[in-house]
Records
---
Amino acid sequence: MRRLRILVLVHETLVPPASLEGVGEQAAAEYRTEFDVVSCLRESGHDVRPIGIGDSLTELRAAIQDWQPQVCFNLLEEFGGIVTYDQHVVAYLELLRQPYTGCNPRGMMLSRDKALSKQILAYHRIPTPHFAVFRRGGEFRIPKTLRFPLFVKSATDDASLGISQASIVEDAARLAERVEFIHAHTQSDALVEEYVDGREFYVGVMGNERIRTLPPWEFIFGELKGGRAGIATRKAKWDRDYQKRHGITSGKALNLPDGLADRLDRLARRIYRALHMTGYARIDFRVREDGTPFVLEANANPNLERAEDFADSALGAGIDYPDLLQRLIALGRGYKAEWREN
């Protein structure tokens, strides 16, 4: 394997240490993804430099000019505290004619805007729950097409930010309260969609012109008591103690209805294409008891922690972690950006 100069882009507070020895579990969890990627690339023999990025690109430009990395491994999830601005960092890399891993700017923009992406998917007749957007500072009016129960979340944020058991609402009063909460808590518009009761699946996708999917992975909600619904709340996704307490885990999807795996595969490919995604992504689905799937959202550049869903599903397909990162690098270096076409 060829040794590469790899510049790893991370948030300025998430530059990982050389070792986790003596680092507490909670502290290590904050930059676990960054540590896993950097340490694995170094173990694979690459020359790796992480660079912390906050609200300035000056240091990034200098590092690219001085060191001339063969690829930037993009682990950014925001820029200047704004989650939708990481796409502009990728656009900046393209302006510098710098190869990078992950999704292109257009695919990031389309998938990050959940309302816009759902409109695109509806145009392509891809099943997604009926929805409406409640704008910050706008009039509160419930469309007649929506049917309770409804699910309320941020129109732009990811990582389950702002999602809790209270996100499922049964009446207009609860809806108004939750919409106001999302506006205040996430500083974003609220996306309200009809709640789909059922199982939750994730399908990983990798590729540029040619794509492949990974085996369906299921988020298993365990034994939620007290009337709690099976949804991927912030605590269910990220609170390890909460997961252990309720038996929440994830794993290869088992006991699927006939034909569902193939249908999820076809839908994931169509969604990836429709949103002009490249590199890698995770497509989230809810499937009713009768086997009817609905796409919830498409996530560009999902979490690459060694023990998270995307890497686990890749392992289920026979792709170990070092090989997975190497494939993402190859996709990034092989992506035909417009500057390469010209």
Note: The longest strand covers residues 199-207.
---
Amino acid sequence: MIRPATAADVPVICNLIRALADYEKLLHLVELDESRLREHLFGATRYAEVLLAEEAGEVVGFALFFANYSTFLGQPGIYLEDLFVKPEQRGKRHGKALLAELARLAVERGCGRLEWSVLNWNEPAIRFYQTLGAEAMDEWTVYRLSGEPLEKLAQTIPFPQK
């Protein structure tokens, strides 16, 4: 079963995020705060949404996503930030069910695309996405500002403010 997460699911979502980070060998980078995640998912301004995959009443996977916008298409889109199914639950179509529900939401919301990133070494995920007809965007490179560089740029005023 695929369902939208509720505020009561935040501890489970945090555990799944940590499990994803561990799988991606990035657990050392996780600074996740449960109360902040609750606020961001269910507060006055909702920055993202989460779908949960359940089997026999147990949450076995999640998809965290948010809206983006394509200027070229002139349409909104959905960006899938994280997709994770517990390793012992893989091969049972939970990942495909999560993506299918995201695709349904994208179509229902008038979105022109569903996008996500995948680590280059994650061959099982890449093969899975290719079976769905997803295309790698080889001409694009993701850039990121965070931490000190982000703070430094935020303090730069290139032109006088009115």
Note: The mean pLDDT is 95.
---
Amino acid sequence: MTPYPRFDVPGQVALVTGAARGLGRAVALTLANAGADVAIGLRDATQDAGLAGEIEALGRRALPLQMDMTSPAQIAGAVATAAEHFGRIDILVNNAGIAPGHNAEDVPESDFDRTLAINLKGTFFASQAVGRLMIAQGYGRIINMGSQAGEVALPGESVYCMTKAAIAHLTRCLAVEWGSHGITVNNVAPTFIRTPGTEEHLSDPAREADVIERIAALHRIGDPMDVAGAVLYLASPAASLVTGHTLLVDGGWTAR
């Protein structure tokens, strides 16, 4: 009989980028709770806000890493350090991203360049560095953090939307290239989630009410653990035949 699906990752090693807060923090803790040791990618490795201790309290190993996602050199160095420390990397979660808001006619070049550098360039070069390790070991799970903004237009977020649409297609490209090496590549696309990054937007009662109304099916704003559960599924053996896929965690926003 075929074994029942498993939704845990015991003994595996995960690298989560942008893990200091919000979605990244929730994902790191969820993977640790499911049995993984976790390398924590941070823009400032001295500021992990206690995350390493929380992971260790779950009985897993943690390694904070200096990993500025605008620097391919730092990305490569962090991946090499994690691989040397743990001996392998089984799961990569490309969570780091930014979303400076401007109407399209007002986007400054500096914000355009930084958004692409972190959201796209950082995601690609982290995938490349970890992908080389996964090809050598014949196994891997890469989960990109997209957004419903890759599927629908959000006013004032043209550059962010563009990067998240590109990540969805990059996911398909890498899935096709690396599938023969036992690597799956998928994309999680959340709606508005209550995190430090959305706090300012959702602090306006009118905007919060508009977001809740647009989340058509469930009419509630998500929690980071709603997204972390989707990441864990895609990292787990239960999703072994799922690749090149974008999993919307949007409460029905895009179904409308």
Note: Residues 109-137 form the longest helix (29 residues).
---
Amino acid sequence: MSSNHVHDHSHHAPASFNRAFAIGMVLNLLFVAVEAFYGWRINSLALLADAGHNLSDVASLGLAWAGALAARWRPNARYSYGWKRASILAAFVNAVLLLVAMGSLVWEALHRMASPQVVDGVTVMAVASVGILVNTATALLFMRGGEHDLNIRGAFVHMAADALVSLGVVVAGALYLWQGWSWIDPVMSLLIAAVIIVGTWGLFRQSLHLLFDGVPDHIPLADVHAYLSSLPEVTEVSDLHVWAMGTTQVALTAHLVTPQGHPGDAFLAEINHQLHDRFEITHVTVQVLTASTGPLCQPQPAH
């Protein structure tokens, strides 16, 4: 029995988004101050709700930033994987905070619908228009990193959704000026909450899935098993496990039975290369056996 660890660290490290996080947090803090002031002055729930949401954006960006920084800390004797999972935790907490904030918004909007109040539609439109610019600019800072990093994608989706929310507030102000509908402010707040909840649910579900060592959505486990089983030297694949170490790195462990003896380092190097290129698995540990010992862990089919 021999154990071989094939760890690929040649993949490109995620780009630093320190500047993007810093700029995004400053822009949103400034906008929160403006939006909260005018929302309080003209008694607009839509503006106050969006200001509260944008304040949560500052906290969320800070959380995502902290997660990204922690994920880059090197492994040590106490944390042999480092703190890579911090980025998953940051994405999860980010989603939870946003869902809780939207629950509070829905509650307040329902109360406001019972007693609609007059608002200054022009001010609402002007302030929300600034919000469109701020949120769009912030979202663009994270657009290029969202494909391969759940934490960065969370920041991008969050800010892109906010740009749409601000657009909704502009529409509410315009409808109020046009038709004089005093109920449009809380109704738009409910629509805002619905858009954000729908957009956040995927982030919440995926981050929770990864926290419990679920197989990342982009990796078909059956295809990974089929590839390993198709190798000429391999007669059995068992104890195959795939999980996310963080939001940018995926790990795999497996037992491969090769009755003809150990196939050599070139065999293992090719496995590492194929798993990296075909499935984006970056941290591979394979144990080669010359006789089957039976699976120690037998996964059940997903329902």
Note: The chain has two domains: 18-211, 215-289.
